[in-house]
Amino acid sequence: MVKLLVRATILGYFGFFMVAALGYGYYWHLHWRTPEQPIAFPHTVHAGQLELACASCHIWVESSPEAGVPPLEKCMSCHRNVATERPEVRKLARHVEEEDPVAWNRVHTLPDFIYFSHKRHIAAGLDCSLCHGRVREMEKIRRVRSLEMGWCITCHWGRGAPTDCAICHM
Fold it and tell me: Which residues make beta-bridge pairs with 169?
């Protein structure tokens, strides 16, 4: 009877940690996922090789709370003549011709009760890579920071930025 109790305790102990590890793995998969996009956009080419500034495509980053995805016409201003034979550029052109917006999948999201302004952070002189990582080197855009409250507060403390709750929690 004692042997059975010891075995059950050991099995329960290791079983608990196995379930916890699987749960954490699932959380990690959802939280740090790299969503597939309907059109593959090579940041390694545009931001990396061509050294385009983030604001040249994310045109609202300096004037709006959201950086936004550029309108397709912005892309086509170059791609009417450049790399027109590439399959992803052809997809882009088809969306423009058919006036069909691209359903991009968000990589970075915050809860609805959080107010975040790219405009304020850009005006403070922060580089986009601080939160988004080295996008210039990413084949596929992925989340590299948790963007959770503790991470943001630590950043604010380190820069002497305000940490009043009402700034982010509206």
Answer: 114
Residue 30, H or E segment: helix 2-31
Which ranges of the chain have pLDDT less than 50? none
What's the pTM value of the predicted model, to 2 decimals?
Answer: 0.75
Structural domain boundaries in the chain: 1-31, 35-69+104-168
Place of tokens 């059109």: 39
Among 83, 97, 99, 98, which residue's Cα sits nearest to residue 40? 83
Residue 103, C-beta contacts closer than 8 angstroms, at least 6 positions apart: 38
Q: What percent of the chain has pLDDT over 90?
A: 61
Cβ burial 78-108 (10 Å sphere, 16+ → b, else e): ebeeeeeeeeebeebbebbeeeeebeeeeee
